[in-house]
Amino acid sequence: MNINTPIEEREFKIVGKSVKRDDVLEKVTGEAEYTGDVKLAGMLHGKIKRAAIAHARIKSIDVSKALAYPGVKAVLTHENVPRVLHYGSPHPRSASCTKDQYILDDKVRFWGEGVAAVAAISEEIADEALDLIEVEYEALPAVFEPEDAALPGAPLIHDVGPGGNLVLDPVRVNRGDVEAGFAQADFILEGTFSGGRPHPAYMEPNVCIADWDGSNKLTFWTSTQTSFMVRGILAEVLGLPLTKVRVLVDHMGGGFGAKQDCFQHEFLCALLAKETRRPVKMEFTRHETFVAGRARHPCKVWLKQGFKNDGTLVARDMKLVYDSGAYGSHGPGVTIVGTTAATSLYRCENVRLEGRCVYTNTPINGAFRGYGVVQSYYALDIQMDEAAERLGMDPADLKLKNVVRAGDIAPSGHPIVGHGLEICLQHGIDVLDWKSLRNRDRTPDPKRPHIRKGWGIGCEMHGSSAYPGIKEQGNATVKVNEDGTVTLLTGAAGLGTGAHTALAQIVAEELGVRFEDVGVIHGDTDVVPWDIGAFASHTTYLVGTAAKMAATKVRASVLERAAMKLQVKADELDLSEGKIFVTAEPGRFMSVAEAMGPSRGIPAANIVANGTYEPTKSYSFAAHFTEVHVDTETGIVEVKRVVPVHDIGRVIHPIAAQGQIEGGIQQGIGHTLTEDYVIDKKTGRSLNAGLVDYKMPLSMDMPDIETIILEAAPDPGGPWGAKGVGEDPIIAIGPSIANAIYDAIGVRFHHYPITPEDILKALREKGA
Amino acid sequence: MKRIVELTINGEPRDMTVETCCSLLDALRDDVGLTGTKKGCDVGDCGACTVIVDGQPVNACLMLAVEAEGCTVETVEGLQPGVDTLHPLQDAFMRHGASQCGFCTPGILMMAKKLLDDNPRPTDEDIRFGLSGNICRCTGYTKIFDAIKSAALEMEAARS
Amino acid sequence: MRRFDYHGAETLEQASRLLTDLGDDTFLFNGGTDLLVEIRERLRRVRNVVDIKGIPGLSDITYDETRGLTFGALVTVGRLERLALVRERYPNLRDALASLGSIQVRNRATVVGNVCRASPSADTIPPLIADGAFIHIYSRTNMRVVPLAEFFTGPGKTVLAKGEIVTGITVPPAGDNSGKAYIKHGRRKAMELSTVGVAVSLSMDDGVCSDIRIALGAVGATVLRAPAAEAILRGTRLDAATVKSAADKAMEECTPISNVRASADYRRDMVGVLTGRAITQALEASA
To answer: I need a surface site. Which of A482, A636, A717, C110 has the fewest CB within 10 A?
Structure first.
């Protein structure tokens, strides 16, 4: 599909309606099968022995006692697993990955890394056997902060890569002439910003089951967003053709990006099953989802921007350092995406950016909703508020003046389509009566003078698809059955977003059948077309377009078939709501079932078509308007109200789209105020790997959210102009909260999470 | 050490043969085969395993199976009033988009059922308080609140 | 999870014997909401648990005007929380109960269990200490009653000897013109372990504070009383300046530590803020 193709306008029958999601019926009855619900005859349970040291060489490892323990069937260590260097992040088709992992190594690079694995007849026995594995370590000096890891002479964590503990060569982006820009500036703002280590904390702990059959074929159930990537990487590392690895995933309990890696336990589970010739299940404890999962990259940002007195931005100089943790995982992609994102959002012709990603001896950071951009836009958006203050302007006005517009070059290198961000911002300003809001009393309750109110705005834009980092491909197969029903085969994972429903809506709309007549088959790599995985806010955009393309093809075939039966030409026919009729004579019609079915001398039709779509990228936009209350005695910040205004192009399923936005806001409030996965900077040990001390906002903490979705800037790259929405909300909410806190108490924070202690300390410093 | 536990699950008398250290959650999932109840943390922090025991919601992970001897246990699988009918909460959760990944849904449904059984006209605060032991990481809770309010109204209308 | 053996006791004596005879790594099992977590998270090595829930007579709740409220070891947090009597006469305890864990946890966890776990951050302990509660202890040789304030010897440690079992707690009745408050401080509004918890119970006599007890949670090795702060307040009209100086004194009296939940300095600051707020709230309730 050409990006210049005009967006087709039509009266929609199914698209744009919040149809009932089929998958939710199973979820509310308890019948939905998640990986952990699968039980196979003779299934063993696997457990991983984890290192209680952050950086060490394994001198010896003795598994004899564990092997002798009743009920234990196999023990794996670095001495008896294949030594294959692999990509932990399964995107070998892209440039943005680093081969730096072994299934098990003779070296430990973070506290909690697996050093051995046990399979036993019960989970308890496997767990008990872990204590019987004796590991002798030679401790190595460890580094826990990127600054320390980047120092000359710092202990090297890997032999591979560009050296100096860099995961990849620094990412540099230069546009215009930054020095000339600063020379024109009336004033310059410079600041450092930093972000903590939020964790996706999906509800379903990672889990997989491996089963080998007599023909040496591996069937692998796993909770993954990227089943074909898992298939590919397992096949590569285990030395198998793709026909011998089948990956299955039906329902999954969230992922938010982090379930895109191929994890250590997945390789170990496959190998334990191979060794024992029995199915093996491996399920993380909640603690393991933290230590062995993937968090957002902690980041340090240095940002210097030059402004004219009229608010024009004339120069942007930015350096970002992302903490990769002990392995590369998505570090390269996050660094590239997060750094290049800073070319945009607010217009600036002279830009110089440098992004680095550094190994440390801490748990692995990976892909997580907002992929590097959360960090860079937090800095950009807060500094924009600071500039507004310096100028004596309302930040809304300064942002309106500078937001990117149609034709500006997006981070992907393409011209932006439409004025999405401007429209979102203006819409929020209007519906909230922002100007009068800014004039309200910040201490409205005289009985509680310690409670201060404030309002803030955060802006963001985010791409649907991982282009240009990955040239993506979306695939769909659509079959029309002889009773007129339609089957869509897709490799896109159902991680809870409602993507399959949206895809079915697109097929039904394009084909002209009822939504109820479309069934979706997914989650089996032996059956469905190849899929890159569900990430980068791209499923509706990428796979949606592929599904639409396949539906267009089968529609034509169905019409040809009906034309034969109705004795007319296909182009004289139309198809709507499952009925094929002669356009000029609506009285002459037949159902799709009649067209497809057999009749005397004519067998039933077999109509199948594939759609393959290789897009570039579209951008979605949002402005979040947030009200906070700050208790100036305790430092507690409460987010009271959020009005998120999003442009996501054509909305396929409004309720599902709202749900993405509201869920992203919950996560973003957490990241900004309460969530931080804390690693002890002396030992590398996790200090809060559990759901009590890793504090996600819960039902009583959530504000009222009044979601507004605008179809302001449809993109021709998506089905009828549809764009992504998954990641956008988590990016805008953070700076809106930080800016609201400033509005309430007059103190700037350049980091997240902003804790009550930070608030009190800053208030004291301000008062002093 | 194994023991036979006799109890009533979703209205049916059942017995389960369990290790005495086995949780009610593992017994329901692995021995009885009722996998609708989910294990999100196994330490009482997330509420995904909420079931109703003798009329009170509990985390099935924090109860031993042997402690359920003689108890009446309700799980999400028992929520449907009939084979082809849904509990108003189930229907409302579908309509309002209250379930995304669905992993927290069974626990939240059981908690919401108990809430509406005790308090047919809950305020917003009642609903927020009632769900405060159930983590949802997908929805931001907004749609869940909507669904529970909607179900409460429908149940009220059906009674009158 | 590592395996353990389960023993159901039918009498206190049997439970006591099992606890002494089964050897180390044997623990009393009541609500289980802490013990099972400690087992699963490998925080405690457990080989045997002795369940006391089959012992008759430990589920009673009684109240009379002279003795006050007495509840048995098996009484769950949720059951007490839902009791109108507790809501009306022990609002501090009620607020503490309603803030402990989640509804689901409260339906299993027992108040006695929360107390015996002896965590400095346990929610139920500060209001019970502020109210002058007593704890009833069974042993095979003699029964004893201990003021709750003297029950704790350190984090996770109590005066209980091996084989001793707490059978219940008595909370004295609230006098006329008394006021009570419990304020828990955490980052969220639910599912929190207290960063600081402050309980205040006071009595007013013609506008003058005749008695006051302040108990501070999560700022010491055990829940602490703040005697010097209390002394400042007794006999005064609890005007703002006096309350402020008492709150400052309470900050001096606490001995907090730093951990992932909060720094010692912040905890100390919160003792000041919350002591002031709790006194004010209790004073308003006494009117």
So the answer is: A482
Specify whether C183 is located in the same domain as C162.
no
Are both C203 and C260 inside the same structural domain?
yes
Q: How far apart are CA A615 and CA C177, in angstroms?
A: 74
- Beta strand A486-490 pairing with A107-108: unpaired
Mean pLDDT value across residues A333-339: 95
Neighbours of A338 (CB within 10 A): 27
Residue A92, pLDDT > 60, answer no
From the list A586, A601, A584, A490, the residue with the least C-alpha distance to A546 is: A490
What's the domain range around C12?
5-50
Task: Answer yes or no: do C66 and C147 share one domain.
Answer: yes
Cβ-defined contact of C269 to A700 (cutoff 8 Å): no
The tens digit of pLDDT for each residue in A420-444 reads: 999 999 999 999 999 999 999 999 8
pTM tops 0.95: yes
Instruction: Using an 8 Å CB-CB cutoff, list chain B residues near A662.
Output: 139-143
* In a shared domain, residues C35 and C83: no
CB proximity B37 to C under 8 Å? no
Residue C85 lies in a domain: yes
Structure tokens at A139: 């401790």
In a domain, C21, yes or no: yes
Q: Name every chain A residue with its beta carbon within 8 A of the beta carbon of C193.
A: 692-693
Would an 8 Å CB–CB cutoff place A25 in contact with chain B?
Answer: yes
Q: Are residues C157 and C184 in the same domain?
A: no
Give the closest of C40, C190, C262 to A700, CB-based: C190
Question: How close is the nearest chain A Cα to the Cα of C65, in Å?
Answer: 37
Pick B1's closest partner by Cβ from C1, C6, C78. Answer: C6
Q: Pick from B44, B47, B129: which is nearest to C33 by CB?
A: B44
Q: A521: which strand partners?
A: A489
Q: What number is the average pLDDT over the span A484-511?
A: 95
Interface contact flag, B143 A655, Cβ < 8 Å: yes
pLDDT in tens, A354-370: 999 999 999 999 999 99
A and B: number of Cβ contacts within 8 A: 179
The answer to whether residue A760 neighbours chain C at the CB level (below 8 Å) is yes
Q: Are A615 and A537 in contact (CB under 8 A)?
A: no
Rounded CA Rg of chain B: 16
Instruction: Give domain status of residue C55, yes or no.
Output: no
Residue C107 contacts B where some CB pair is shorter than 8 Å: yes
Would you mind telling me the total number of residues written for chain B in this entry? 160
Tell which of B127, B142, B148, B150 to mutate to test the A interface (max A CBs under 10 Å): B142
Q: Is B96's Cβ below 8 Å from some Cβ in A? A: yes
pLDDT band, residue A88 (cuts 50/70/90): confident
What pLDDT is attached to residue A9?
77
CB-count exposure of residue A333 (10 Å: 0-12, 13-18, 19+): buried
User: Inter-chain contact A757–C263, Cβ cutoff 8 Å?
Assistant: yes
The answer to whether residues C149 and C130 touch, using CB atoms and an 8 Å cutoff, is: no
Domain boundary, last residue among C171, C193, C212: C171
Residue of A nearest to B130 (CA): A699
Question: Which residue ranges of chain C lie beneath pLDDT 50?
Answer: none
Task: Check CB contact under 8 Å for A756 and C187.
Answer: yes
CA–centroid distance for B16 within its chain: 20
Chain B environment of C8 (Cβ under 8 Å): 66
CA–centroid distance for A90 within its chain: 14
- Which structural domains are found in chain A, ordered by start? 24-32+473-613 (3.30.365.10), 418-461+618-768 (3.30.365.10)
Looking at this predicted complex, what is its ipTM? 0.98
Mean of per-residue pLDDT scores for chain A: 95
pLDDT digits (tens, 9 = 90+) for C91-109: 999 999 999 999 999 999 9
Rounded Cα–Cα distance for residues A481 and A500 (Å): 19
Q: Is residue C56 part of a domain?
A: no
Q: Which stretches of chain B score pLDDT less than 50? A: none
> Cβ separation of A692 and C193 shorter than 8 Å?
yes
